[in-house]
Amino acid sequence: MTITDIDTPALIVDLAVMERNLARVAHYAAEHALRLRPHTKTHKSVMIGKRQLAGGAAGLTVAKVSEAEVMVEAGPEDLLVAFPVIGRSKLERLMRLAAKTNLTVALDSVFAARQLSDAARAAQVEVGVLAEVDVGLGRVGVAPGEELLHLAESLEKLPHLKLRGITFYPGHIKALSESGLRALDQLSELLRSILADFRRAGIETPIVSGGSTPTLFHSHEIDGLTEIRPGTYVFNDMNTVGCGACELEDCAAAILTTVVSTAHPGQMIVDGGSKTFSSDRLSASSEVTFGRVMEASGARFHKMNEEHGFIDLARAERTFDVGERVRVIPNHICVAVNLHERVYGVRGETVEEIWTVDARGKLQ
Description:
Blueprint: E1 10-14, H1 15-31, E2 35-36, H2 46-54, E3 60-62, H3 65-71, E4 78-81, H4 88-97, E5 102-107, H5 110-123, E6 127-132, H6 146-157, E7 161-167, H7 178-200, E8 207-210, E9 227-228, H8 238-242, E10 253-261, E11 267-270, E12 291-293, E13 300-304, E14 309-312, E15 325-330, H9 333-337, E16 342-347, E17 350-356
Parallel strand pairs: 1-16, 2-9, 3-4, 4-5, 5-6, 6-7, 7-8, 8-9
Antiparallel strand pairs: 1-10, 10-11, 10-15, 11-14, 12-15, 13-14, 16-17
Helix pairs in contact: 4-5
């Protein structure tokens, strides 16, 4: 089977680029003695999870219980749910996974911790927990200082929970510009202060978990960090390129589309719209675009309906005919993957693998 046999629109992955991305990060983590627990939110695939583990990852990270139920099939010795788990039904399902792997949950409230403790007690299992601290994004996580210490001390007292350390997500650092590097220095300083507080309080923090794909290759410069959880790096996307964390040739995934109309001069319509691509815009640009057309860098993918992609060809290097195929690298690959049932792994023009997006639509 070759690329020409794939019906469009379709998600395709250059296997050589993906393998290079996986190997590069595994080598980086090993070189700097950082524990790699990659987030599976990007690929959502048991098969790729297995490859990450085989490449040296210590475990896997998920956001939702339903994702954990899928990714446990990859056989991780350690599985982190990097999201507060609230509600009896979710907790009962989560406890069933504790028999299959070492389970750790990130949380930022005593309320969530008590619910987790009660569920673990009922199931007669021990669950690891990480106290989540907000380092600047303003999403989840308690404030550093007394609030974080109070949370950690509360976690230590709850039965059937084991405090394994702290976690954070520096999602506010989106570019490695001068200001971004300053923000990394400030993050390092903040972590030094947090860990000093914990030492004074006699609280051990064997795991200090953090990082993101934009800050990935600066992780070793963050004092005290022991574990990284990048996700997007496996495929990369235009936002990763835009923030300086990778080059265009490091983008492994693209959406293969077909030109279905050129009825309007200077424009072509492809057979992929908002049900095919992420609607996320470039994070480092005010321009409205939804991806980069690989066959014509000057083409502007500027509008979508549900099934139609509008591409402005005014500055394109060439024209296109109905029936031609073009590849588009999405701005945000994580959301795009979740829209597709399967992925075609290609090497050159040959389709070598087809895999299912196992955790697609796993929201609960």
